[in-house]
Design a protein that fits this description.
The complex is a heterodimer. Chain A is built from twelve helices and no strands. Chain A is mainly alpha-helical. Chain A folds into two domains: 63 residues, no CATH class; 226 residues, MetI-like fold (Orthogonal Bundle), CATH 1.10.3720. In chain A, helix 8 packs across helix 10 and helix 11 packs antiparallel against helix 12. The relative contact order of chain A is 0.14. By secondary structure, chain B is of the alpha+beta class. In chain B, 29% of the residues lie in helices and 19% in strands. Chain B has 15 helices and 21 strands. The longest helix of chain B is centred in the first third of the chain and has 19 residues. Chain B starts with a helix and ends with a strand.
């Protein structure tokens, strides 16, 4: 297991390097010019050229890439073209809201989606099953921003229970933290919840038709024991897989959610950076997201062996 | 199919219905950020993200607006567009307008408590002149010396007269001349400053700055306002607030909801779609933000066919129906727009319609087609760059595509983002090789009050603004304005300039439009101006 984990960690290094090269190349090829944005509408073409030179954007691709990679290896992601702040500082400023949002979304989604999927499978063909599936279809089909606006309208403007926007760090207390984050987490989590609930239901239906479940019933094991001890554990591998895959969707959804609820997170930082062609910030954030995604997938792989000891690497 | 913009309008409408029905039931949600002595803290939603704070290096208006609190200026324009002394106590000018001597007010202090000296002003002027193409560079070209006379006095010695000096030093269009400490102003004008130290009424809290989310300014106790009543950038800048927080809310529906719930106090640029809702919400005031408004622009590339021929440019001019453009840009609110058959800002002293006939009355598509044929146009693709991420530009682009098709042009609609348009419009190559024929933008009315800050009207060819129009007649008439001794002569020069520019079709104005601002009625002292003014604003 340890050897496997080590091999997998080492294997992530070339993946991240390829991602880095890909991101850098993409930005190089993509049109757009931060110098033109900085210079503004009143600037002359000469001004734009001078700004481009001062930012080092006139240097050849290979030199820029090697310089950047060398700095990254030394832990320096560079400075933002626009704010002149270190990218690592900007990420540090933004990481807590995004991590908080994702953690709360994940917690809410798993807490509701897995029991919903299990119950739907257990009550297969009944109105409960249909209700769960309808909820899942609604979650799938409704864009995050629609849910976000509706929640804000009802709970912030109409009922005045929660704020419309913003973020409060957990260091200021759990309640203020949750007051700000609960609506975004629900908005973002609905699609994730739908995804997990559907997979849980489908997998549980398959598992519940297996011989060993019939044997367990014959031995007099209670319904709860069958569902949550025997069946769910055997259904865990596809569920864990979809949780891992869905993480990418969560990152994408966070961009929209952070805009709708004005959460100062990494999603908004990424969008702002892309619109302004703030290359060092885009590179830093995408690299970070890639690393997180690679790590999540590593964790998923390792969890397989926990849920199913027959899996060997 | 549901899209985000459509839903935004619908959900805001829902919110509005709820707000109206609730009439007061919609109370104040607890602000999530910076709770404190609430009537001394103003929460403001600016027009855009404050991504940097070097008003010389970056020329975005949002940077200028933040900078106006931090840095003081030598002269400031009042609401009559007259430059008034601000940091300057007095000035002397030689009869030939070649020697200008300025004395600073006593007691001026930077935020680090160092005195403001003439050497700081000289260093700041040098940095500004290097970046201000409209007024700074012309002064630099005339400059024999810019020298410190004593701690409070400095002097320009010019080799040609420059009668518009006060207007240049007090210009409100970007880049403005802000006075920084000498050590900061010594920074290469093409590199960003790293220290934010001004002598204005508010100091910047860099430690609280989260670009893209929040910026904070605190009252500077060492600031000594002038005794005169404040008027725009002139007069006494008395801060009634201890703290101004800028909350960057890029989503219009969120900003609207935050204003309704009392989480923010003032929204600089509410989108026209949401204004009816805000008007109906109790506790919120809505009014025109900038009386000088904006002039929409259809910019033609004069270097390449067909628009290197004036007949093709006139054909487009004849096809432009300004009311179509303006309704696409700001909707059907008649208080927000008007047709402008000229290049200068309506309701300002130099406004003229002389030569504006091609933009007046019903459109003449047949004549436009005839002119186009005479120009030799044979259906080549017309590359129209449209920044789809900016609503004002997207709307203009769509109307232009339709107008060009009506006169038989083959439109290649390039849907891009503004960052890409910014890069591509600088290309002088032919359209088929990555260049362009037309792009859209808009010019702040404050920049179009006379030719000095009006870079878009420059027709000097290679050194002109994007599109590179070249007309000796237009240039002569711009120079005639510079030499005009009084208002009557200025008006005469501007009328002739407007006519020449219209005939040459330097660019095609697509109309004049304004925007709204909205604030909670707990605020008093909010004024109409081309920039948000925080002095004299108080909160109950």
């Amino acid at each position: 297991m340890l050897a496997y984990a080590t091999r997998r960690v080492l294997a992530t290094i070339p993946v991240i390097l390829i991602v880095a090269l890909f991101v850098f190349s993409l930005l190089y090829i993509a049109p757009g010019d931060p110098a033109a944005i900085i210079a503004g509408d009143q600037a002359t073409p000469d001004d734009v050229e001078r700004i481009r030179a001062s930012l080092g954007l006139d240097r050849p691709f290979v030199i820029r890439f090697v310089d950047w990679l060398w700095s990254v290896l030394q832990g320096d992601l560079g400075n933002s073209i626009f704010t002149n702040l270190p990218v690592s500082h900007m990420i540090q400023q933004r990481i807590e809201p995004t991590l908080s949002l994702m953690a709360l979304t994940l917690t809410l989604s798993l807490s509701f989606a897995i029991p919903m999927g299990v119950i739907a499978a257990w009550k297969h063909g009944t109105w409960i099953d249909r209700l769960v599936m309808m909820t899942a279809v609604f979650g799938f089909s409704t864009p995050v921003f629609v849910i976000g606006y509706l929640l804000a309208f009802v709970f912030a403007l109409k009922l005045d229970w929660l704020p419309v926007q913003g973020f409060t760090s957990i260091s200021h207390g759990l309640l203020p933290f949750l007051r700000n984050l609960i609506l975004p987490a629900v908005a973002l989590g609905l699609v994730y919840m739908a995804l997990i609930a559907r997979i849980t239901r489908a997998t549980m239906l398959d598992v519940l038709s297996q011989d060993y479940v019939r044997t367990a019933k014959a031995k007099g094991v209670g319904q709860r024991g069958i569902l949550f001890l025997h069946a769910l554990k055997n259904a865990a591998v596809p569920i864990v897989t979809i949780v891992g895959i869905g993480f990418a969707a969560l990152i994408g959804g966070a961009v929209v959610t952070e805009s709708v609820f004005a959460i100062p997170g990494l999603g908004r930082l990424t969008v702002d950076a892309i619109l302004r062609r703030d290359y060092p910030v885009i590179q830093g954030v995408v690299l970070l997201f890639s690393c997180v995604y690679v790590v999540v997938n590593l964790i998923v792989d390792l969890l397989y062996t926990l849920f199913d000891p027959r899996i060997r690497y | 199919m549901i899209d985000r913009r459509g839903f935004l309008k619908g959900s805001a409408g829902l919110a509005g219905a709820g707000a109206i029905a609730g009439a007061g039931a919609v109370g104040l949600a607890t602000p999530s950020l910076a709770q404190g002595a609430d009537n001394k803290v103003l929460r403001f939603v600016p027009q855009a993200n404050l991504a940097n704070l070097d008003p010389i290096w970056g020329t975005q208006y949002v940077v200028r607006n933040g900078s106006l609190m931090i840095w003081d200026i030598l002269y400031g324009v009042n609401d009559k567009l007259e430059p008034q002394p601000q940091m300057v106590e007095a000035h002397e000018v030689s009869p030939d307008f070649k020697t200008w001597t300025f004395r600073l007010r006593p007691g001026l202090k930077f935020h680090d408590n160092e005195p403001v000296l003439a050497k700081d002003a000289v260093a700041s002027i040098n940095r500004w002149m290097a970046r201000d193409a409209t007024m700074g560079l012309p002064i630099k070209r005339r400059l024999d010396a810019l020298e410190v006379v004593d701690d409070r006095t400095f002097r320009f010695r010019l080799n040609q007269p420059y009668p518009k000096m006060l207007f240049a030093l007090g210009k409100s269009s970007t880049p403005c001349l802000f006075i920084m400490p000498e050590r900061i102003a010594a920074t290469d004008p093409f590199k960003q400053i790293t220290e934010i130290v001004g002598s204005g009424p508010m100091r910047f809290r860099k430690d609280e700055w989260v670009p893209g989310s929040r910026a904070a300014f605190e009252r500077f106790a060492g600031y000594v306002p002038r005794v005169e009543k404040a008027s725009w950038l002139a007069g006494g800048k008395r801060m009634m607030l201890d703290r101004v927080e800028w909350h960057i809310l890029p989503d219009a529906a969120t900003a609207s909801a935050a204003l309704q719930s009392g989480e923010v106090d003032w929204w600089e640029t509410p989108v026209p779609d949401l204004v009816p809702l805000l008007r109906k919400t109790s506790g919120i005031a809505v009014d025109i933000a900038d009386p000088l408004g904006n002039i929409g622009s259809l910019r033609l590339n004069h270097l390449h066919p067909p628009f290197n021929d004036v007949r093709a440019r006139r054909a487009v001019q004849l096809a432009v129906n300004q009311s179509d453009y303006m309704q696409a840009v700001v909707g059907d609110d008649p208080g927000l727009w008007k047709e402008v058959p000229g290049y200068f800002t309506p309701d300002t002293p130099l406004y003229t319609e002389v030569g504006g006939e091609p933009l007046k009355g019903p459109r003449n598509y047949e004549l436009a087609k005839k002119l186009l044929a005479e120009s030799g146009y044979k259906g080549e693709p017309i590359v129209l760059l449209v920044a789809t991420d900016l609503a004002v530009i997207k709307a203009q682009g769509d109307v232009t595509a339709d107008a060009l098709k009506r006169i038989g042009m083959n439109v290649e609609y390039a849907a891009l983002d503004w960052g890409t348009v910014g890069q591509r419009r600088a290309k002088k190559e032919p359209p088929a090789q990555g260049g362009w024929n037309i792009f859209h933008t808009w010019h702040a009315g404050a920049d179009c009050v006379n030719p000095a800050p009006y870079i878009a009207l420059d027709a000097s060819g290679d050194t002109a603004w994007f599109g590179w129009p070249k007309s000796d007649l237009v240039q002569e008439r711009i120079q005639a304005w510079y030499g005009a001794p009084d208002l009557a002569a200025e008006k005469q020069a501007i009328a002739a300039l407007n006519q020449a520019a219209m005939e040459h079709v330097v660019y095609v104005p697509t109309g004049f439009f304004k925007g709204y601002q909205a604030w909670r009625k707990t605020l008093t002292g909010v004024v109409k101006a081309p920039f948000p003014i925080f002095w004299d604003v108080s909160k109950s």
